[in-house]
Design brief:
InterPro entries: AcylCo_DH-like_C (IPR036250), AcylCo_DH/oxidase_C (IPR009075), AcylCoA_DH/ox_N (IPR013786), AcylCoA_DH/ox_N_sf (IPR037069), AcylCoA_DH/oxidase_NM_dom_sf (IPR009100). By secondary structure, this protein is α+β, with helices and mostly antiparallel strands. The chain has eleven helices and nine strands. The strands form three sheets. It has a four-stranded mixed β-sheet. The protein is globular, with a radius of gyration of 21 Å. The model has no long low-confidence stretch (mean pLDDT about 95).
Length: about 375
């Protein structure tokens, strides 16, 4: 009798290709999205820099990382996409990568392969020629309702990056549709979000027409696949936020002197930063595990994603709060970027479901032995 195959251990390390990708993305963001640039952009009505997005999506090819080469993409995986999101989290750069290149792309991938309209749209999104956004509230968890409207008529609030999207993927009870952002009967109204680096908007459809992508059942499965990937890779963005906050806090407390000694040498602050370091290391393991599970198509991917979100969202918020507080007075100013990280961490903590919701999902997914 053949013994059952043992599950493969997740690979939490970074490959050389992933490190090379990280270097390229970090160099681009350092040049195009440093702190003064991002702060200045949030004070305008258009926080996105089209040149930055073009360089990231097309120049580096990040927009098509999840798309197979036969469909016009780079043929990489969620592991590489996770590296990009770590760097975007580290710089809080305003870019629709998570929403377009991960969530919308995964949704379209679930429907691709038959030469239909999903294939054509996926190729355009992978090339960076168009930006697509799934038209569901940003707080929708992977197991949440797959359809927010009965038909292409109604209002959906709190859609992340809808204001910069070319195409909206609208799930309805009648199926999944692709609707042009400027199509007749479609109106996108920007909202004022907590996180100014990731704008939210309201979509109102009134007599709009769209391209059918999938019937209700297939469309619902595609939407859940997109949301699962979004939740799993959001953990990598949260990891990047926490790593930046810890690094900058350690650097500042080494340079800031009080009573003729660095404030970082005081035992109370050492303990706080040591605790934060432990949390960041654990968050890295959880985020990498989720990315690897998605990349390998593991049956445990929903559990890995739920664990990552249940843990990483709290670590990002804690790291950002400590960053603001341990920077003292300058941490409270608009000119210092700490507030951007705190707002992004707070907004991310309820994106794709809250930590509490993901803990409930873990409890449901884990099969506990009978007493």
């Amino acid at each position: 009798m053949t013994a059952p195959a043992q599950p493969t251990a997740p690979d939490l390390l970074y490959s050389q290709d992933e490190e090379d990708l990280r270097s390229a993305v970090r160099a681009l963001l350092a040049d195009r999205a440093d702190a003064p640039t991002v702060i200045a952009a949030t004070e305008t009505d258009t926080p996105y820099d089209p040149r930055l997005w073009d360089a990231l999506a097309t120049g580096i090819g990040a927009a098509g990382l999840l798309v197979p080469e036969r469909l016009g993409g780079q043929g990489a995986s969620h592991r590489e996409a996770a590296v990009v999101l770590e760097e975007l989290g580290r710089s809080v750069a305003p870019a629709p990568y998570l929403t377009s290149s991960v969530v919308a792309t995964e949704t379209l991938l679930a429907l691709a392969g038959d030469g239909g309209p999903a294939d054509a749209l996926l190729g355009e999104v992978a090339s960076g020629a168009r930006t697509a956004v799934l038209a569901v509230p940003f707080a929708t968890p992977p197991a949440g309702p797959a359809a927010t409207l009965a038909t292409l008529d109604g209002t959906v609030r709190g859609i992340a990056d809808a204001a910069v999207a070319d195409v909206l993927l609208v799930p309805t009870a009648e199926g999944l549709y692709a609707v042009g952002a400027t199509a007749p009967g479609a109106a996108v109204e920007p909202l004022v979000p907590l996180d100014l680096t990731r704008p939210l908007a309201t979509l109102t459809l009134s007599g709009a027409t769209g391209t059918p992508l999938a019937p209700p059942e297939a469309g619902a499965a595609a939407v859940r696949r997109g949301l699962l990937a979004g939740a799993g890779l959001l953990a990598s963005e949260q990891l990047g936020i926490a790593e930046w906050c810890l690094t900058e806090t350690v650097r500042y407390t080494r340079e800031r002197h009080q009573f003729n000694r660095p404030v970082g040498s005081f035992q109370a602050l050492k303990h706080r930063m040591a605790q934060l370091w432990l949390e960041v290391v654990s968050a890295r393991a959880a985020a990498r595990n989720a990315a690897d599970a998605l990349a390998t198509g593991s049956p445990d991917a929903p559990l890995a994603v739920a664990v990552a979100q249940a843990y990483c969202s709290g670590v990002a918020v804690h790291a950002a709060e400590e960053c603001v507080q341990l920077h003292g007075g300058i941490g409270m100013t608009w000119e210092h970027p700490a507030h951007l990280y705190l707002k992004r961490a707070k907004a991310d903590s309820i994106a794709f479901g809250s930590a509490g919701g993901h803990r409930e999902a873990v409890a449901e997914l884990v099969e506990l032995p009978a007493p």
